[in-house]
Design goal:
The protein contains five helices and ten strands, in the order E-E-H-E-E-E-H-H-E-E-H-E-E-H-E. The chain is an alpha+beta fold. It has a domain at about 120-190. The strands form four sheets. A three-stranded antiparallel beta sheet has the order 3-4-5. It has a three-stranded mixed beta sheet with strand order 8-9-10. The protein has a two-stranded antiparallel sheet with strand order 1-2. The mean pLDDT is about 90. The structure holds iron/sulfur cluster. Iron/sulfur cluster binds next to helix 2.
Length: about 190
């Protein structure tokens, strides 16, 4: 009685290795064979993770139409050598994401819900509150308690600034300029925290 199966039976001797899985013919369908990688043919643009001060380098893959297809770690970077932490690995979703909020959400004092407001309304409210707080808390001179000496300080301790790590270099520069010109001394950025 025959107890073994000849797996090579029916195989052409000149079948390419790529057309086999082990000793069997590769049965991938034509549709599967036609599939291409998401970044096939895309242009890789060197960029930087925006999230923290480590400054990991990335490769942003862009299609011919300028559409972002994927973001990966840059293997040529001496800082991250192609690796990205979980935040950096989510960079693609930061940019291409139809769930992302694009409108202002406002929660009034003591309210338990958010309301949608126009961006212009939010900017006006922030400007008015900054002006009111600065005028109420601005200190021009301060007396040193140990020496009694009067010193010019021109600052406010009533306002603090916390920048987001998704800020670019130019945005952080502008924020720093604005805050210092207002006399704000408590300036921090999430990228450094
Ligand atoms: S957030 Fe992560 S990937 Fe981005 S720069 Fe910092 S360590 Fe690198």
């Amino acid at each position: 009685m025959k107890t073994t199966i000849d797996l090579t039976a029916g195989l052409s001797a000149d079948l390419d290795i790529g057309e086999r899985i082990g000793m069997l013919p590769n049965v991938a369908s034509q549709r599967t064979k036609n599939l291409k990688g998401r970044i096939a043919g895309a242009k890789a643009v060197t960029s930087l993770c925006c999230y923290c001060a480590v400054g990991c380098s990335t490769l942003a893959y862009v299609s011919d139409e300028g559409r972002l297809l994927d973001v990966e770690g840059n293997p040529d970077s001496p800082i991250n050598e192609g690796h990205l932490c979980p935040k950096g690995s989510a960079l693609f979703g930061l940019t291409v994401n139809d769930q992302r909020w694009t409108t202002v959400k406002y929660r009034a004092p003591f309210s338990d819900r958010y309301e949608e407001r126009p961006l212009a309304w939010a900017l006006e409210r922030i400007a008015q509150l900054v002006k009111k707080t600065r005028e109420a808390t601005f200190v021009r001179e301060w007396t040193d308690p140990s020496s009694g000496e009067r010193k010019r300080v021109n600052h406010t301790l009533g306002i603090a600034s916390l920048g987001g790590a998704t800020f670019g270099i130019e945005e952080n520069y502008m924020l720093g300029k604005l805050m210092r010109s207002l006399g704000v001394v408590s300036i921090e950025n999430q990228a450094r925290i």
